[in-house]
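hiii so um. not sure if this is the right channel but i have a protein structure encoded as tokens and i wanna go backwards to a sequence. like what aa goes where. can anyone help
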């Protein structure tokens, strides 16, 4: 499929750190390989792609703060975890022949490039996958909000959020068998009903800049490509 036939030509993919690992460890070989294979297939459609990945498989700032670590320090630790995940993702993708660049909001030039907006856009224009690490470089901001901000800065056509379920539900479908799935929602519905697919700041930023959010199950093999071609199982938030 050629690039011009796609609804979205430049997208940001938001992944949780748990997409790379399991309860048995920070990283899972099968999970990372499957994830990167799906990213490669999506890239072959001709899209321009950037990625934001969380650090929850290693540590979370909010969790660390609960055990007595000062919140700002805890959040910085969480940012460093996202850098580790970004490097892992980069290594596996490049092993599959996908040219990738990691750009960090916290400068660490020995292992990755500093975040410069115009440089990131140029990388995507040249066909490289850009992985954003270290959030926005400041504490008290979630990777969800950082994702929305990066999508706006990169002038992305959509945010694709890969989760453990195939869209947004009225309740947790794993706990409530009567939970209803939403096919389409407006931004205000997500905020009003506190559906918690992304935090309120991220939803508001996407709404203000008219960036649709597509929520889908990342662990379903090939689902990313299906969502990009309009045949996937997801919930679309827009309008």
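sure thing!! here u go:
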């Amino acid at each position: 499929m050629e690039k011009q036939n796609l609804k979205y030509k430049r997208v940001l993919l938001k992944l949780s750190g748990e997409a790379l690992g399991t309860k048995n460890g920070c990283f899972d070989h099968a999970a990372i390989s499957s994830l990167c294979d799906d990213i490669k297939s999506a890239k072959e459609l001709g899209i321009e792609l950037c990625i934001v990945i969380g650090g929850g498989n290693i540590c979370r700032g909010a969790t660390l703060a609960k055990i007595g670590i000062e919140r700002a320090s805890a959040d910085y630790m969480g940012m460093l975890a996202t850098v580790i995940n970004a490097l892992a993702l980069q290594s596996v993708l490049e092993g599959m022949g996908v040219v990738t660049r990691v750009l960090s909001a916290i400068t660490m030039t020995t292992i990755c490039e500093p975040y410069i907006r115009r440089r990131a856009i140029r990388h995507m224009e040249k066909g490289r996958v850009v992985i954003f690490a270290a959030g926005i470089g400041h504490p008290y901001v979630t990777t969800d909000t950082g994702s929305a901000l990066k999508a706006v800065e990169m002038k992305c056509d959509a945010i694709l959020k890969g989760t453990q379920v195939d869209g947004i539900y009225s309740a947790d479908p794993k706990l409530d068998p009567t939970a209803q799935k939403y096919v389409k929602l407006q931004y205000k519905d997500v905020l009003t009903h506190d559906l918690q697919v992304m935090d309120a700041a991220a939803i508001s930023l996407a709404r203000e800049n008219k960036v649709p959010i597509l929520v889908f199950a990342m662990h379903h093999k090939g689902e990313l490509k299906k969502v990009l071609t309009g045949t996937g199982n997801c919930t679309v938030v827009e309008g």
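oh and The longest strand covers residues 10-15.
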